[in-house]
Amino acid sequence: MTEAEQQQLIDDHFLSDKPVLPLLLASGMARDWLDAHGIWHNDNKTFLVWVNEEDHLRVISMQKGGNMKKVFTRFCTGLTQIETLFKFKNCEFMWNPHLGYILTCPSNLGTGLQAVSCPTWEVLKRLRLQKRGTGGVDTAAVGGIFDVSNADRPGFSEVELVQTVVDGVRLLIEMEQRLKQGQAVDDLMPART
């Protein structure tokens, strides 16, 4: 990969840049940068596999338009193909009956799944969602757009986590439509948990 191709992937948020956060640096995550670090993606860049970014392997399925079912189906199909290849090589993902899948980042224990949608902040907390910049954790929003993802990971199934995002985004869209029409949204506000 040329430096220009690498920079374009970083600019498009498909490839992470060298870690700069003190916690990541102290843990040795930048020790072998950029060696032993990479990306594979399909032609449409809707299915990506990051190697040795924050986790040893990060599988990403995404697309614009909000069709979470299509994104999740692509994710499951791709992950099944990766697991089949691993088994052929006598390898498997680390899994524990109590903790679920074991990943490098403790916040991803369990399923490791993070479902993300991109709409437009007490509301998110009540929906068990979180926001971050469009470039990932600790990045700024670009053009007033945030990524919205599930706040929970351990203790929930992949289907539950995706459904949390789908239901939350559906509610956010309904609230936004009402607000554009000058209507109140108090009756749509989720209860405090």
What percentage of amino acids are in beta strands?
5-15%
Overall shape: it is globular
The oligomeric state is single chain
N-to-C SSE string, H for helix and E for strand: HHEEEHEEEHEEH
Based on secondary structure, the structural category is: alpha+beta
Report the strand count. Answer: 8
Task: Please tally the helical runs, counting DSSP H or I stretches of 4 or more residues.
Answer: 5
Q: Mean pLDDT, rounded to whole units?
A: 79
Neighbour order of strands in the largest sheet: 1-2-3
Write the layout of secondary structure elements.
Layout: H1 3-11, H2 22-26, E1 38-41, E2 47-51, E3 57-61, H3 68-88, E4 95-96, E5 100-101, E6 116-117, H4 122-126, E7 129-132, E8 147-150, H5 158-180
Antiparallel strand pairs: 1-2, 2-3, 4-5, 6-8, 7-8
What features would you highlight for this structure?
three-stranded antiparallel beta sheet, globular, 8 strands, 193 residues, alpha+beta
Q: Can you tell me about this structure?
A:
- With 193 residues, the chain is α+β, with helices and mostly antiparallel strands.
- It contains five helices and eight strands.
- The chain has helices at 3-11, 22-26, 68-88, 122-126, 158-180, and strands at residues 38-41, 47-51, 57-61, 95-96, 100-101, 116-117, 129-132, 147-150.
- The protein has a three-stranded antiparallel sheet, covered by helices on one side. The protein has a three-stranded antiparallel sheet with strand order 6-8-7.
- A hairpin with a 3-residue loop joins strand 4 and strand 5 (100-101).
- It is globular and about 55 Å long.
- The relative contact order is 0.10.
- The mean pLDDT is 79.
